[in-house]
C-alpha cells in the first residue's frame, strides 16, 4: 500500500454546481474511509479547494477511485496535485 496526497482546486464560478454534488461526493468519501482507502479529507477554510490523503495499492487504483468520485463527472474541480507521499511520522 502507498499513501497519496491529492489537492483539488475549486473554481468559484462552479460553486453552486459543486454544492449540489457535494452530498454524493461526501457519501462516496465516507465509503472510501470505511473501506480503508481514505485516510483523511477536507476543504480549505476559504473553499478554494481540498486536500485528501489516500492509502491505495498504486496510482492506478487512486485514479480509478478519483474517476468514480461524483465530483469528477460534474467537472467541479481541477486536480492541482497528485503525489505519492512518505510521511515522516506515522499516521495513526
How many individual helices?
3
Query: Can you list the strand order of the major beta sheet?
Result: 2-3-1-4
Any idea what the shape is? globular
Largest sheet: 4 strands, antiparallel
The CATH superfamily turns out to be: Dimeric alpha+beta barrel
pLDDT averaged residue by residue:
96
Question: Quick one: how many beta strands?
Answer: 4
Task: Identify low-pLDDT runs.
Answer: none
First-to-last CA distance: 15 Å
What is the number of domains?
A: 1
Question: What structural category do the secondary elements indicate?
Answer: alpha+beta
What key attributes describe this structure?
4 strands; Alpha-Beta Plaits; 33% strand; 3 helices; 4-stranded antiparallel beta sheet; 92 residues; alpha+beta; globular; single chain
Commentary on this structure:
The structure is a single chain. This protein is of the alpha+beta class and 92 residues long. The protein has a single domain, classed as 2-Layer Sandwich (Alpha-Beta Plaits), CATH 3.30.70. 37% of the residues lie in helices and 33% in strands. It has three helices and four strands; from the N terminus they run βαββααβ. The protein has a four-stranded antiparallel beta sheet. The protein is globular, with a radius of gyration of 13 Å.
Amino acid at each position: 500500500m502507498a499513501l497519496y496526497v491529492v489537492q483539488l482546486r475549486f473554481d468559484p464560478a462552479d460553486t453552486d454546481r459543486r454544492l449540489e454534488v457535494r452530498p454524493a461526493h461526501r457519501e462516496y468519501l465516507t465509503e472510501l474511509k470505511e473501506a480503508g482507502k481514505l485516510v483523511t479529507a477536507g476543504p480549505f477554510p476559504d473553499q478554494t479547494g481540498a486536500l485528501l490523503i489516500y492509502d491505495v495499492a498504486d496510482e492506478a487504483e487512486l485514479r480509478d477511485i478519483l474517476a468514480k468520485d461524483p465530483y469528477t463527472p460534474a467537472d467541479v474541480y481541477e486536480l492541482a496535485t497528485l503525489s505519492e507521499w512518505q510521511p515522516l511520522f506515522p499516521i495513526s
